[in-house]
Write a structure and sequence with these properties.
The complex is a heterodimer of chains A (64) and B (759). Chain A is mainly alpha-helical and 64 residues long. Chain A is built from three helices and no strands. Chain A has one domain. The termini of chain A are far apart. Helix content of chain B is 51%, strand content 17%. In chain B, the strands form six sheets. Chain B has a seven-stranded mixed β-sheet with strand order 15-28-27-26-16-24-25, with helices on both faces. In chain B, helix 6 packs parallel to helix 9, helix 9 runs parallel beside helix 27 and helix 13 runs antiparallel to helix 26. The two termini of chain B are 30 Å apart. The chains are: A mainly alpha (64), B alpha+beta (759).
Amino acid sequence: MTDYFFLIPVALALGAIALGAFMWSLRSGQYDDLAGAAERILFENRDGPDDIARAHEDKPSHRN
Amino acid sequence: MSCCAPGAELALAMVDPHTANEEVLLASRIIGDGVRQTDLSVPGIHCGGCIQKVEAALGALPGVEKARVNLSTKRVAIRWQADKPPAPFIETLNNIGYDAYLHDAGADETDETLKELIRALAVAGFAASNIMLLSVSVWSGAEASIRNMFHWISALIAFPALIYSGPVFFSSAWRALRHGQTNMDVPISIGVLLAFGMSLYETFHHEAHAYFDAAISLLFFLLIGRTLDHMMRARTRTAVQGLARLSSRGALVVQDDGTHAYLPVNEIQPDMHILLATGERVPVDARVETGQSEIDCALVSGESLPQPVAPGAVLSAGTLNLTGPLTIVATAVAKNSFLAEMVRMMEAAEAGRPVYRRIADRASRLYAPVVHLTALLTFIGWMIVEGDLHRAASIAIAVLIITCPCALGLAVPMVQVVAARRLFESGVMVKDGGALERIAEVDTAIFDKTGTLTMDRLRLMNRNDIDPAALAIAASIAAHSRHPCSRALAAAGRDNAVTPVALNDLSEQPGAGMQATIGTTTYRLGRADWALTAAAEQSATTDVVLSENGRQRAAFHFDSDVRPDVREAVLAISDQGCRVEIMSGDRDEPVRHLASDLGLAYRASVSPADKTKHIVDLTEAGQRVLMVGDGLNDTPALAAAHASMAPATAADVGRNAADLVFLHDSLLAVPQAIAVARNARQLVRQNLILAIGYNAIAVPIAILGHVTPLVAAVAMSASSLLVIANALRLHGWRSRKEPRAGAPAGDISSQLLAMEKAR
């Protein structure tokens, strides 16, 4: 019986972490250009995160 | 920078109207910290190499902080310092071989809906999987105390998920109810909310059955359907927006003090003097003040051949200036121009068209009352038989849960998404599911001529009658001009593999033609009254002549090039049981020629209002009309028709009004769209029958009170999987049956590129 008190919160927390990670990746514009991301991985120069897309994404979220 | 000097922008604009920096400034937006962002649509980007080339070229420009390519939408976002004038972005891209167009900022606003749907879907998915996990333990026979604890945890997960993901359906259901109507979201919302409420009550009273899993997985399944439906529309919208803007954003206006300023279209007043460079579109209705040129009216009136204009000529907004710079005087403000007039007529036609109710909404109109009545009768029946309020209520709610319209919510969009994807692969973009439903019903197809049955480029008709030496000279001269006739001549030269001739003193006479010398002989290629000295010869010629020292050497006849596969397409559409006719704004003669060639009925010189009227008349006679057209003059007719299609080369308004847009040249896209839409309609009907069959089995079980949460979960998942599997069959039909029209999928971008280049 006491096992439940650990296992259920752990299971829910893991699920919630995955959900949070998905929400974050969605918000930071990582799904905006799937075709482009597939190409960029092959570039030799270091390519930072897409701050333009994020600036673009952040704006509407301020509205909420 | 040179663009700061007054007058310099005129020189720039003469080279290429797009380089007018004011236009870039006008379309950019401030994103804070003294930084502006400009979005460009670059249809030619198609690989990783393009990304690097474009980003490197733009990043090297002065003032540019960062350029970022989005390969999926084929757009570039450029951030630049607002205190400096914009660098020549478009020119830079043109120099490295990419066509670029300013993209409307703010056009992406609606993308937020998709984001919201995906977030709601993620939350519902998380909640559904966790609740299902707990429910499985309950179904496997957990003892009462643990069962109750699990129910409480389920309630804790389900409640926030309902609050977060539910409003997608609740708000739409509430809107419908407030207007005294019902749509599909009404039974969904009632089912989900009642299931949750009853489960909460059961949990409070330590009862055995709670339906949290059913309520939330319903939400999850239905959100999948909703998201797919929205993605289909978003994808088409992105693709349509990637095409070039054909209406002008502004114009170079001569102000009172003699300086020039670039003004947005809606600030242009009558009597303003506008400098119109070659290659620019007329911004508002205007009159020519000085200059000679030729005007391409194909998109506006449907006339296929360029029209010469001289001072005093009247120009419609949207026509394209071809050969010489003009000074024009505005005669109307933008909102009274031809374009705005067409938009008004289009809106009137749209308002006049009966509102089309989508098949799912029509089905739910029958479905909802039946389901709710059944639940009510079940409740009354159990009250009479047993008189136990709690038991009667829980069985009635179980009926509502089991009949929740999963098949309508998931199966219909699923079929339509698969159908839209199939069409997308062959270069046809579908605006939404309703468009697919409508185009499946058409029984009459009306085609515009110019730009629809024909291409928007000209072809040399009498190529084989012309002396090869004369053709070689003409093609060599024509290669230096962008006039449609010249392009056709140059293309004919390439096809006949003529050897280019070396030319001297090449010059272009706006509105008349080209002149060049070879040795001591002067050649003129252009209008007969300009190229020929002897008056007697003039009357015999029609289009364009090549003259040698003033004497005619060859005469060229042009007509618009017929789209590939026109004959096959018309045959295929007739085979599908549709009557086909041609309705054009062009002169009688070319329309009759094409119509008799194809064996079709035709109407020529039809005004935009008469086009609309003809369609309304047919509709009132009980026919369902498919309008295929591209011009501004077709736009009201597109809106009035039951379903509409436009080629990607159509005017902006027309493209936005049309239900379907096809990217490839081949007209086979039209019969193919009808065929796919009809297959989809058949599958949707099968799915509805499956749904009815499922209910015929499940409802009696529910009414008799044998539905437990386990039965509900199994029944719902099984029926959902069944309709999804049925929808996916549409994908299989392609490989077995019809060969695809046009080029393979990966070719859309290169087609687009070729198309934009042709402009």
